[in-house]
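Researcher: Sequence recovery benchmark, item below. Answer with residues only.
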């Protein structure tokens, strides 16, 4: 039976119903405007506060040396690349950055993408087809999840960090047609994937290993080479972003010469995208130089992480996942991502508002970004945070949780 045209709701009417539902469930999201630089101290909606929800782990997003490199490149190369890299958009700054990144992570080649999302989608769609199998951690970033789905491959999601589940999936998958993909540092929990063990399994079952090191690159390892250095693991496909530890934007894939050449031919998100502005590539290369020249940034970040975790322990602030089924692994102590799981969406929003009123910005993270019942404050530390700022956040968290208990 056809629906009378007069009874059909307009698009805006249908969307209004859905937006109302999101508000009722405390899942509605609102952008906040930042004025000026994105550093540890930040102006949000006209209020000066200390930010503890940025991925600017090394404090380079507002570094004047990085900005100066971008300005020089703007004067030399202009604001845009004008076309995709295969047409006329591949600037000398792009090539210099790719060479520097490959040398830094000690891989033969690297390929620059406009974003981490584009990199993961491009790789998975290029390498997988309907006859292939993707084996992936259930808590992987959405870009890996969507990339696997869009590739049309058979998708086997395994329990978080469960090596037995990985091995069972590898046994089940055809030997030559499986690929294992995982985050290195999981973006909402801050824990590390078991990369050495995964690499051994992949070698045993002859399956390539893909690692998204977005939150490890520049941060982990003695030289800042990320989780692959921290875990002494070399994956077949290495992906990392430039908008976190380097404080710029974009991403890259590193691996063999054959892998990079194949992606140049077949990664649709690279082939059909305008190349990033040359000035961003110049800025990222300067940031990479600073990462290598100033290991004290990682040392300061590590001290800040330890100060925050020890302060939380002393104040009885429970970091990590609260139920015994999913304990917070010890590996979370090594990363800047420190979740405070609150469960209900309303609790996360209320504590976030309380902190903001006290001068601390920590965004509430709710479904679908995290599983239902695990809404949280995702607290992130930076090398740019001063000890007194960390202590102030801890005191505000203590007061907010006490106010909630006494309400």
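Model:
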């Amino acid at each position: 039976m056809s629906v009378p045209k007069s009874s059909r709701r307009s698009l805006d009417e249908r969307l209004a119903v859905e937006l109302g539902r999101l508000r009722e469930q405390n899942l509605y999201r609102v952008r906040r405007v930042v004025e000026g630089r994105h550093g540890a101290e930040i102006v949000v909606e006209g209020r000066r506060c200390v930010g503890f929800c940025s991925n600017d782990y090394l404090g380079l997003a507002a570094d004047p040396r990085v900005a100066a490199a971008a300005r020089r490149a703007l004067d030399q190369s202009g604001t845009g690349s004008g076309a995709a890299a295969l047409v006329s958009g591949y600037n000398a700054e792009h090539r210099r950055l790719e060479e520097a990144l490959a040398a830094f992570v000690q891989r033969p080649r690297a390929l620059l993408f406009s974003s981490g999302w584009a990199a993961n989608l491009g790789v998975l769609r290029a390498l997988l087809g309907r006859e292939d199998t993707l084996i992936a951690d259930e808590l992987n970033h959405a870009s890996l999840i969507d990339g696997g789905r869009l590739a049309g491959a058979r998708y086997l999601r395994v329990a978080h960090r469960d090596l037995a589940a990985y091995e069972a999936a590898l046994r089940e998958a055809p030997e030559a047609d499986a690929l294992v993909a995982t985050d290195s540092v999981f973006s909402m929990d801050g824990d590390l994937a078991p990369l050495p063990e995964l690499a051994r399994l992949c070698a045993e079952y002859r399956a390539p290993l893909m690692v998204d090191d977005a939150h490890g690159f520049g941060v982990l390892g003695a030289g800042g080479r990320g989780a692959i250095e921290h875990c002494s693991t070399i994956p077949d496909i290495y992906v990392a972003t430039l908008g976190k530890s380097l404080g710029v934007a974009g991403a890259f894939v590193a691996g063999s010469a054959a892998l990079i050449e194949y992606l140049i031919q077949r990664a649709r998100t690279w082939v059909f995208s305008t190349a990033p502005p040359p000035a961003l590539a110049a800025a990222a290369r300067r940031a990479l130089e600073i990462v290598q020249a100033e290991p004290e940034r990682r040392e300061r970040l590590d001290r800040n992480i330890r100060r925050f975790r020890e302060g939380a322990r002393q104040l009885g602030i429970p970091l990590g996942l609260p139920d015994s089924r999913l304990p917070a692994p010890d590996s979370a102590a090594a990363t800047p991502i420190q979740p405070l799981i609150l469960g209900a969406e309303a609790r996360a929003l209320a504590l976030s508002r309380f902190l903001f009123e006290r001068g601390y910005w920590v965004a509430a993270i709710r479904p679908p970004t995290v599983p239902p019942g695990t809404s949280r404050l995702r607290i992130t530390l930076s090398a740019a945070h001063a000890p007194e700022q960390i202590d102030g956040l801890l005191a505000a968290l203590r007061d907010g949780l006490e106010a909630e208990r006494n309400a």
